[in-house]
Amino acid sequence: MKQTGDLNLVKKINKSIVLHHIRTDSPISRARIAEVTGLTKATVSSLVNELITSSLVDEIGVGESSGGRKPMMLIFNGTAGYAIGVDLGVTDILAVLTDLTGQVIEEYRVEHDNTSLEATVALLKASIRELIGRAPDSVYGIIGIGIGLPGICDEDGNLLFAPNLGWENVPLQQLVEAEFDIPVVIDNEANAGAVGEKQFGAGKDTANLVYISIGIGIGAGIIIKGELYRGATGFSGEIGHISIQHDGPKCRCGSLGCWELFASEHALLEHARLERGEAVDLETLLQQADAGEQSVIRLFEQLGYYLGVGVVNIVNGFNPEFIILGGRLAGAEKWLMQPLQSLLKQRSLPHPRKQLNVEFSKLGDGSTVLGASTMAIARFFASSQVSVEHSG
Ligand SMILES: [Zn+2]
Questions:
Q1: Mind listing the pLDDT tens digit for each residue in 163-198?
Q2: CA–centroid distance, residue 9 to ligand 1 (Å)
């Protein structure tokens, strides 16, 4: 019995390896897979046949020969199933339906005012249901749902604390799984954003990157050697709470002078409000800066300076290749970037700065939804479902 189990496990692992190469390097031939994996051609052929039977791989005709018979090329069948990625924000929900390669097929966006947990979760479920309804027919259907959240989550799928939503200890994964009977993965929105940037954005070819999500607060997703760094107990990335003024104003986290008190969207709006004696929203500020209003441009430049102060700490502390700034403030790049870069030049250490790129996200507000869907897809392929189902 034991031996059979081990053999099945080996086969399962080999099959995942073969599928991984087809997913990342297609079109690819069987011979090439054997070459890069070290598996025998016979093993590769048998595993590929199973993957074709399970609709995850297609043959697409003959490729270039390196001498001898021309090989049949294999591609990953991205439309064998679909995933849903959700960014549950403080004021709106953005959800996308993607195929298994992460390509967006459908999008759904709705605003919420978070009157109650029940109402917002109901809207979340309605958004997911809407996209499930729009999904094309496929062999595997909806394989998973990933949800990025503005708070910290534990490994059991509980949202422990989301201060800007006012939520605590919500078993969100369980709530959504029970509704749809589809596997659900939840994570912090900055973690999901980092995964999205690594997979589809500026960080595509980068092994060490920090994605900084600038919203009401500031959070970071840290990718080290290609993997999301979660810290000892899953709570890494609360980078908005590094203190940049040791005796500064009190933060809601209990500390003093936290970075997000100076450099977040909330901080910007607060400065603007104090200056003009009335509340103003980000869209208005962006329009006014675009129209050349100097006092507003100065507000953005000041924000760029404060962003730089925190970014210097990240550069010196982590030595990343890439820092990607995301969130709605990406729209203010042209006023933020120059003060940020000049501060970086003045204050970061020369060696970690040498190979560094700092960019605003090109994915718009898509980093988190794309990352969330990527997480759902990764879980599907890591689960036994695919690897075992057709292993006979
Ligand atoms: Zn704080």
A1: 889 999 999 999 999 999 999 999 999 999 999 999
A2: 46
